[in-house]
Automatic annotation (TrEMBL):
It comes from Phyllobacterium pellucidum. InterPro entries: TPR-like_helical_dom_sf, TPR_2, TPR_rpt, Ycf3. This is Tetratricopeptide repeat protein. Gene3D superfamilies: Tetratricopeptide repeat domain. GO terms for cellular component: cell outer membrane. Keywords: Repeat, TPR repeat. TPR repeats lie at residues 69-102, 103-136, 137-170, 171-204, 205-238, 239-272. One of its GO terms (biological process) is receptor-mediated virion attachment to host cell. It holds the Pfam family TPR_11.
């Protein structure tokens, strides 16, 4: 019962989704700087697992086992899921005092620090987890995503490669490495990684959006359109999926359908500029 910080993060996967796969810059009927990005791996944690009832039962466990580091780790995880970051940090601190080599607790604490915006401390904790257990793929993936978000793509690529060399079954390793390939305009490699992520997590919308964007960059609108439609079917609440679909309609000259899809994206995220610009462009037409 570890927080399994990073492994759970890739998924609605049940109640968690990646945020912000996007088309970087859309000009009239083209795609400039074609790239998907992710603002964060985890925009929310399953709060059901951090329910008052669950935490209450964990309080009882700790009262009966006050020297058990795993008990504090599990309760810290529940606090994290409930958004009670300070309480989570306290529990992980106790767990690590009781067992300084508890690498899962370091990784779990790193996730909470990341959610608090303390990337430096999160990277330090992921690095400590890796130092204790160099085979722990979740820590490489968590640290790699922080490096990627900071623009340190070489370090991020090294971490994702390491997780993949460890035969990880975590789709995020391939998805995030695909984002780096995409940022470097290596779209064939990006498509391969997004496809692997899809094979590992077929119910996730985000790798379909990512792969579709690379298909657009290679001029393959038909496969891109299939991927964007699949992404919308899997999760119709992601604005980028609708904006991506709209772009293909726009490429095909179907301004009415493009405007409708852009409008849906704007409804979901009024601040999403590619959708706002696309809607203005297609409505004018």
């Amino acid at each position: 019962m570890t927080y399994s910080s990073e492994r759970a993060a890739y998924g609605k996967f049940p109640s968690v989704r990646y945020a912000g796969l996007l088309i970087a810059s859309i000009s009239a009927l083209g795609l400039a700087g074609c790239q998907s990005t992710s603002t964060t791996d985890m925009t929310g944690i399953d709060k059901a697992q951090g329910s008052t009832e669950n935490i209450s039962s964990l309080n009882d466990v700790i009262r009966n086992n006050p020297k058990d580091p795993e008990a504090y780790n599990v309760r810290g995880s529940a606090y994290g899921r409930a958004g009670k970051n300070n309480d989570a940090i306290k529990d992980f601190n106790v767990a690590l005092q009781l067992n300084p080599n508890f690498y899962q607790a370091y990784s779990n604490r790193a996730l909470v620090y990341r959610n608090m915006g303390n990337s430096a401390q999160a990277i330090a904790d992921y690095s400590r987890a890796i130092q204790i257990n160099p085979q722990y793929d979740a820590a490489y993936i968590g640290r790699g995503n922080l490096y990627r978000q900071a623009g340190q793509l070489d370090q991020a690529m090294n971490d994702f490669n390491q997780a993949i060399q460890l035969s990880t079954t975590d789709a995020r390793a391939y998805h995030n490495r695909g984002l780096i390939y995409q940022a470097r305009n290596q779209h064939k490699q990006a498509i391969e990684d997004f496809s692997t992520a899809i094979s590992l997590q077929p119910d996730a919308a985000e790798p379909y959006n990512g792969r579709g964007i690379s298909y657009v960059a290679l001029g393959d609108d038909d496969n891109a359109f299939d991927d964007f439609n699949t992404a919308i079917k899997l999760d119709g609440t992601i604005a980028e999926g609708w904006a991506n679909q709209a772009l293909i309609y726009e490429h095909r000259g179907d301004k009415a359908r493009a405007a409708k899809s852009y409008a849906r994206a704007v409804q979901l995220d009024p601040k999403y500029k590619p959708a706002v610009d696309g809607l203005a462009r297609t409505r004018k037409s």
